[in-house]
């Protein structure tokens, strides 16, 4: 048994364990211990990967393995990782543990809930380790169904509408992706789904153009790219806390990863020619998303719109095609994944107690619940790009990378993106001022208890993640440096440098 | 790593450690222990800073009679590209060492003072944690080797200021002030960030000293490229530097970005003394000083703009200070005005030994101002502590009940008014002399402002300590302890004597010792203006009388404008509330819900439903209609075939 398959085997075992468990308590502990084992496994694989690299392994992706699934159609379950997929896996493992911890008090259909969470995490792991486009697509699709159920069954508010909207929009995205990968399969002449093989092919530019637009847009829907972002605010606001964390933390990153690894990496010529389209959509998403966020009163809507704005940095970094920008995009994916999970977790903790998420109906949370209030402030400060937290290093890397592109168009896009840091500060501080600082407005709130042990552990875990990247970005860069270099080496001709 | 380098490193690390300890475990420690941890770490850094400063100025920094820069530590933290990386490190050069002294001394005084001032306050340990965080960030800022390192600590300084202004976080006015401070400076930092991007792109470096070298050497290709493009009559380099200065103007509260500072007085008074008087607000001056060679050699046009902004702000803020009635606000506007002095001091300076006295004067004023302004704030804190009010109308005749506060406050007032012999006299003189030599207009503005300064400071002094006692406060005695008095006394010694330091032999633009020129004849005008200001203040405020009110009503329009801070806040409020929120934010949110989501997404969903409704009747289940469709289809095909093959 090879080591990467373990990443899929553990969630399956955990999910099966959940199915056979009788008591809710056993279900919770099984889910938690399974996900913690998974986190350590991810750390272990990363350590092993680093040791291989240090030993001089130069292959583009390591730890390769391949199993036949449906040979006549060239569908193999092939897995391999590089630094980029590893950081995504680490981030996923962290968010899963935290998500399970904050869902500790879920009372309804516990078994089904945790089963779906595990299934969702399984599909994310599968997506990040696959090198076969078909299997990748399979996992991408697999991730949609649990989201639909999680929102539809455990959600709140207009959950039916939101769940349906989310599922349909994501399905629309994956339809585009599917046409795109079919195109890669047939028109490249390679008749293979393996993206490392396809990368070696010379694909005619006419084909590339069509496929690039299809694939980038398709994956872009998952990243809530403007104008396909509207599933995010509704979906997030209706989803239960853990599902919001997964949606914003993990699912949106499936899209970003796909934009980078499939659309941009495999179709470099089209990317050079057409990435300006996505620079425009990303700039709009960043600044317009930020302004739209400013007007939100519901904390979850606020964070959802803010995610649209922040994921704009991911798209912008990928579309700018310089090494620093792409590195920044990868960092931003991980950083936003953890940060937004913490944000949703703390909003969820407040909502569980107050049963409202309207900023102006809250107030005095810091005084009443110092821990939860502080967690909210920390995620807010990370969101507005405070140095020391992960948001700063990733945003700055995107900015510096984007500035490498000369020309008025790129400069304007970069300046717009930079300008969003001011708007971000406005909405974050407004939320902190209304909901967290101030005095308790409602007598009911005086009865609130601060975070439980599980909520505390979740917040501490995610804060650690934010801090590690924010304080020691060199570790992160070290892990992905070679991979971003090899990706951007495909664009050197146009971008220069 | 020698002992100096190690000490320099410890200076930065100790406050960080104390922040960590107090932040993580503070709620388990008693107030006493938390306070002691904070004070011990800061007093230690102050001692280390004195040690490093002595070493730098007299020993290892002095190479052949010139103060050379010394990199004590440097490592790569975040690599962007082959050339661009954020390096963290410690540079010791005249201005950074001078700043280390100022920050650690004032900060340790404020730490000690707070033991008394904040006694019994809720969240005492959190207060000390934030103070330590601030000290750490400010120290990291001044020792930055890399422009991005400075930006990092710049932001950290901003957030610790935010947290401290909002320390009384249940008070709406404190929340608003904290938000305002952060957002205004954030807006300014946007300029700083874009300036950094421009500088780094054009010099292929983020390292301060590489940037300076590449932009000042004659014939440098980087310089030639950078100045080749111009926009509105100024080179790209000048624009980049002005953008960087925008960040500095935000932190240093230059017009029109000054609006956050008076509101920042919502924070505890010792915080105002440390952050909003002595240290953080001079960060902008420090930034310009750090890049001074580039300004002076390659972008004198940008430097001139700074000089004019500085001169205008100095006068503008002094005018407002004359009419404010909240004593902390008077001090806040006075701070703005004094920092503006430093700013135009830099602005009027040029490169070369004979032109750069403005630079040294500005740094000198920064140094002396830290002492007397911190002292003024701490004194004001003691007054507020005694009368429980910020308003002048609740004060009067306090010289008997608060003797130590009275004497130290008087020393500080004399120093800031530029009375000969006290510290402010020497430094202000140097700036005015520099201005007189290069930009007479600015000199006259500065001269007039110095008269105003003396007037409003002594208005404050006479109003608090003389005037008619307010009955309910006549029995207040100096209830505060040694913890509050000792810092007052130490700072008063500094405020009185700091001017006698031969500052030019330590700090100069090029590291060579210089003599600050001193002409007795030149001093006559500023001193006379100062004394006239004091005299008018004495006549109007030493005793209760109705002259001030009469004067106020005779110049009513002007008085009101000044009292209302020339309505700058209202203009901002209009722009943010009316324009940004109502004309940008609201339409964006509306557009998203109605057009993107409503028309585009829900619209396509509804279109799908409508289409399916429309074609649903075809699936009626009736055999007859299916037969009809079938026959119709056959006929159509037949018709097509016939047309095709006929």
TrEMBL record, chain A:
Keywords: Membrane, Transmembrane, Transmembrane helix
Topology of this chain in the membrane: Multi-pass membrane protein
Domain NADH:quinone oxidoreductase/Mrp antiporter transmembrane as annotated: residue spans: 130-414
GO cellular component: endomembrane system; membrane
Signal peptide positions on this chain: none
Domain of life (superkingdom): Bacteria
Record's keyword annotation contains Transmembrane helix: yes
An example Gene Ontology biological process: electron transport coupled proton transport
Listed transmembrane segments: 6-22, 29-49, 69-102, 114-140, 166-189, 210-228, 274-292, 333-351, 371-389, 409-437, 458-480
Family designation: Belongs to the complex I subunit 4 family.
Protein name per its UniProtKB record: NADH-quinone oxidoreductase subunit M
Lineage of source species: Bacteria, Pseudomonadati, Bacteroidota, Bacteroidia, Bacteroidales
